[in-house]
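Dear support,

I submitted the protein below through the web form. The confirmation email said the job was done, but the results page showed an empty box. After a refresh the structure appeared. I'm attaching both so you can tell me whether what I see now is the final result or a partial one.
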Amino acid sequence: MNKQRIPRFVNKLIRRTSRHSNTSRRQRGRRPQSQPTESLEVRCLLSGVGMDSATGSISGQKWHDLDADGVKDGNEPGLDGWRIQLLDDAGSVVAECSTQSVDLNNDGQIDPFRESGLYSITIEAGTWNISEVQQRGWRQTTQAADSQAALLYTLDQQLNLHYTGKYFENWGGLGEKWMLSPEGWHYVTPSGDLFQWDGNSGAPLPVQLVAQTSPSVHENVTRLHDAQPPELTSVTVEDGKTVTGMDFGNVPTGKIEGRSWNDINADRVRTVNESWQNGREVQLHDSEGNIVATAFSSNIDRNNDGQINPETESGWYSFARLVPGDYRVHQITRPHWNLPETTGQYADQAFAMDQELDFRHPVSSFFNWGGLGERWFWSRRKSWHFVPPDGGLYKWNGSSSHDLSGTLIAQFSPQYWERPALIYAAANPDPYSFSIQGQTQRNVDFGNIFGRDASGVGDLRLTVRNTTVTISGTDQANSLAVYGNSQNHVTIQGSGGTTINGSNAPIELLSLTSGLPGDVIISMRGGRDQIVLFDVSLNASLHVDVGTGNDTLMLADSSIAGDLSLTSARGDVQIRLHDGAIARSLSVFNSGDGESLTSLQDVTVGRNVSVISSGGADTVVFQGAMIANTTHVATGSGPDAIIVHRSLFEGAVQILARNGNDLIALHRSEFRRPLHVYAGNNDDVVGNTSENRFAFSTGFYAGPGNDTYADDGTASYGRLGAVNSFETKDESTLADLIDIALSNFDDLLLN
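What the results page shows now:
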């Protein structure tokens, strides 16, 4: 054999390895060009010893692809200790070698760029597949088999996944697609994460992360449950010749991981009473702003004990196998949720000052101690600082409360007085941009605020008499949260800058896991108030008076064993009830002339519903609602919209729209007792669409004005009593008409 055809570093090979016998060779899919009668010796050679028994070789270099571009640059060193394999058509390994450093020029030194990461494998003539053995934490950039295909094929072989004829997409609310295996159900999220289901229904969807793939797998799940073997790089070896340049570039991969939590008091600091949240969508952007991956926060059994600890194993998301580059992580907010404000004109300055002075969270803000309406907090430099209502930040000079003064060290907006935590707990305005160079970036967490913005500033008063809890407001903008904590105890807490009895700490009421035994009375006054109740169980009634400001009441994932009554006197009011149950009656009364919204979405009411508004533009929405007894809706003098969608009414229903150009739209709903709709004055539209079902007498009545009754002809009736006095009757499909009408209510989650 002509050794001059072998690269010079082959003559320095040391290790010799015997691999397979004649029998194993005959099992290969593609036969070699020659068939020796003795056992084939496969050598990873660093010398020419034994070359006479082989017919050719393959050589190359394994290098660190620093810029992940798949091209070997002069500053990119070789990598020793990586295994390179030759495989036959059946995928069996027939030869293997580890990369090493070789002193090619015999100068006694190793050039890390030219003399490291070298390998050479001698093999008989034929066509073979070549690959490297991937190491954890690295990604191959050149000469690679489709690593994604290899992973999918391995998963399918291990789990024996199969398609059942339906993907049951979004059954668990994560946009996921489902497959079955002998091990049970598995699903893939839009980010490409593969999970095994533990068999329990409900939200959040219980999960066990199996592997991370890519969003393209979710788009085409066939790639997983019908995975094909990956195509490898093939190389043909001829007698006495060496195939050179079979190089492999790799780059270390990084990871970004974090969690999502319910930031009840909107201070961007997670406390034990604030639960971790699953199902939150998180996006990964590259330096150009392109979305390169999407993940959903979920349960992950991090200690593999077969159980999920909500405190340590819920709310996790991660982006793995990230090549070097600049990334930004962004969470998508759900309807009615917000992220705490961390950006803005003053955020950089506030963060810098907090880092410099190390402001401390005050036990009390000592509001108005100096008569300026100011709020106080402490610095590690043993100095007091205060913020008056104009948002200026002053360092106190020790003056008395009768003649308060200090040195102005920064000027912020009045919002920083309303929420001084923006200073003493200032968040990095851009905390979620990272340069990944193979490291793991941890604790990239997102706090979520349920409600409008939790920007409260007042001090509520809480009293408990016997079993009745009373919460009284002030004329300031108050924000209040009532929720079930991780022990299912009913807890009350001010949000933003709102305190309760002078404290911003959560107040756990009675420590009863079964809920509060008595009534809860919430009475606000003026100001822009926000009241939020979620994950709470009340064993009696809830009575709320939101007062005279532009107010919001939100109730979600909660149950009330008694009545729920809501009143407002003046201002724009939003009342949003979601995913809950009211055992007795619901009463809503808006006596002011502002705009009002009353929305019942996926809510069950055990008795009667009454919604009455006296003025302004009113919107009343029933979506996914179930009312066990009578329903009465009466709107005021403004342009109103009453929308009923996929809801069930067991009792009689009366809908009355008074003055104004009103819309009454009924969609995919069932009425098991009489329904009577009165359009009132002005120009009104009544729509009866999408297979509504009416079991008893049904009447639609127009008033003065140019009124339109539109019916797509799909409804079924026990008895149609009347369609009376409408100037226009439209028998066509109402899609365009209703879409236009509903375009003003895009935030109502109508679907």
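Response: this is the final, complete result; the empty box was a page-load delay. The chain has five domains: 3-135, 148-225, 253-338, 347-424, 585-748.
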